[in-house]
Each structure stands twice: as structure tokens, then as C-alpha cells.
Amino acid sequence: MNEQKYKEMIEAQGQVLEEAVLRLESLENREYPDYRQTTAEINEAVALLLRTANEAKTVVSAVPKSIATEHVHKLDFKNKKVVIIAVSMVLVIFLCITWIVNLYDQKSQLSEYALKYRAIRQVYPRQSDWADSIYRASPAGMEQTTRKLEDQSLASSHAKDVAEQKYREAEEAKGQASKLEKASKRLRKDALHAK
Q: 61 in helix, strand or coil?
């Protein structure tokens, strides 16, 4: 039995070999394209790429880590943005200077008022204590009280001015009346003499 098995195996192997030989013959008879030229071109391209990569590495290694640069800023007054910014800056500077001068004037005026108040406090301590007490109690009330006092003072001053004007007008009217009276006496006298 072993022998027969071996024979069958040998026969099967023989058939496989015959089939392989037939296939090889059919493959040999086939015509395949020639890839030798294409392979050579690919090899040349790969060699060129390797050379280029090596050259790039040498160039990159030759570049310094930092490059000294110099920035040059230039104002060109032909550019609208530069003109607008320059005009805006001049206006802002002008407004700031005006504001500073105004604050300086206010400071001077407040210093003057403070000096006047200190002088009044020395001469009229009761009145200054009265003003301080009203202000401490209510700053808004102090403002209202001051306005009322100013209005009363203004009304009193106006009434005095009107009275003085009326007095002057009355004096002028008296003067004119006396002149008219003298003129009428003279006319009567002249009329009596003319008769």
C-alpha cells in the first residue's frame, strides 16, 4: 500500500510538473514590453532628486540662524492715511494744549478765590462760619442760597439804578421847567414892554 501511494504521489507531481512546463513555455512565447529604458529614466530621476536634496541640505546648513535686518520707516505725505493721521495728531495736540491752558486758568482763578475767602475769613469770621455751615449741611442748598442772595442783590442794585435814573430825570425835568418858567417870564416881560 505504501508503494501505491508513492506511485500516485509521483504521478501527481509529474502532472504538476508537466503543467508548470506548459505554463512556462506559454509565458516564454508571450511578448512583454521592455521596461529597461523606463527603469533607467526612473533611476536617473531618483539620482537627480538625491543630488538636489543634498544641495538643499548644504544651502540650508549655510544659512545663518538669524539674519540681521534693518527696518526703514518712511513717511510719505502723498499717502492719504499719513496725511489724515498727521492732521488728527495736530488737532489732538492742539486740543490738549487748549485744555491744559484752560485748566491752568481755572486753577489760577480758584487760587484767587481761595485767597479771597481766606482774607474774608480773617476779617469776617462769623460770615465765613455761616457760609461753611450752610455748605457742609447741603452743597446744593448752598448753591440755591447763593443764587437767591445774588438775585436779591441784583434786584436791589437794579432798583437803585432805576431810582437814580428817575431822580436824574426828575432833576433834568426840574431844570427844564425852571428854564421854561424863566423863558415864559421873560416873554411876558417883553410882551408888557412892547405894549
A: helix
Contact 75, 82 (CB under 8 A): yes
From 158, 161, 162, select the one nearest 150 (Cα to Cα): 158
Rounded Cα distance between 142 and 145, Å, is: 5
Cα 166 off chain centre by: 62
Read off φ and ψ for residue 44, nearest 5 degrees.
-65, -40
| Set of cell numbers at residue 191 | 410882551
Supply 150's cell numbers. 445774588
The pLDDT tens digits for 96-147 are 999 999 999 999 888 888 888 888 888 888 988 888 888 888 888 888 888 8
User: How is residue 73 written as a grid cell?
Assistant: 520707516
pLDDT per position as a tens digit, 44-72: 888 888 888 888 888 888 777 777 888 88
Residue with cell 416873554: 187
Quick check: pTM over 0.70? no
Written as nine digits, the cell of 179 is 428854564
Residue 58: name the closest of 50, 66, 46 by CA.
50
CA–CA separation, 130 and 78 (whole Å) = 66
* Residues found in the chain: 195
Distance CA 188, CA 182 (A): 10
* pLDDT value at 195 more than 70: no
